[in-house]
Amino acid sequence: MKIYDIPGFPSPLRIRVVIAEKALASRIEFIKVDLPAAEHKQSAFLAINPTGTVPVLQLDDGTYLSECTAITEYLDNLEGNPTLTGTTAKEKGLIHMMQKRADDQLIDAIGIYFHHATDGLGAQLKPYKKPEWSDRTVWGQMHRDKAISGMKYFDEVLKTQPYVAGDQFSMADITVWAGLIFAGFAQIAIPQECTALVAWNAKVSERPSVKNPA
Ligand SMILES: N[C@@H](CCC(=O)N[C@@H](CS)C(=O)NCC(=O)O)C(=O)O
């Protein structure tokens, strides 16, 4: 299999942690996509992922999978028991729900703030450059507030259970963890009162897969 990505970016990191959790590194070749040079917006890359984002997984039969959730689900079910997306109906439902909340309230909200209210990845890659949309800066800042509310929400969750979707580490934890990495990159601080979130982050950061992603 092949993964098209760029090391160190939040979404690629999610999948690199998954690969380490599932011990699949020896079966995957990484192909670097030059994001700063906008390679992911060129026709060759858009042909494999029309949304123009990384990571993309290419299966051995040539099928392309994009979206971290879809890639995680595929890798988690590839062999043996799924460990990141749940085994029982209840686990699967809870993980899916919390994963969706983590994408919506952290990663996606921070992405909107980063791309619209800051210089993002640079002028060449700043989306929606139309001058009449300049008030999107305000829209971006609203999403910074949304991300902070998201941190407070996950802090409340983690006061009552060890992991984001319950008793076990799951895909939802990886998404929240990557969300906090992205928040740091976008200079959105975790509110001081979010002590359960900070303690959970320190615990998750000690996992071998997180310390040494693929
Ligand atoms: N929903 C997508 C989001 C992927 C994503 O936004 N990746 C970022 C890198 S962390 C990217 O490719 N950004 C480039 C851009 O938006 O121009 C997923 O889950 O894979």
Automatic annotation (TrEMBL):
* SUPFAM superfamilies tied to this protein: GST C-terminal domain-like, Thioredoxin-like
Domain (GST C-terminal): give its ranges: 88-214
User: Which keywords does UniProt give here?
Assistant: Transferase
Q: Any idea which GO molecular function terms this record carries?
A: glutathione transferase activity
* InterPro entries the record matches: Glutathione-S-Trfase_C-like, Glutathione-S-Trfase_C_sf, Glutathione_S-Trfase, Glutathione_S-Trfase_N, GST_C, Gtt2-like_N, Thioredoxin-like_sf
Residues of the GST N-terminal domain: 1-83
Q: Is DNA damage given among the entry's keywords?
A: no
GO terms for biological process? glutathione metabolic process
Q: How does it assemble?
A: Homodimer.
- Could you tell me what this protein is called? Glutathione S-transferase
High-level lineage: Bacteria, Pseudomonadati, Pseudomonadota, Gammaproteobacteria, Pseudomonadales
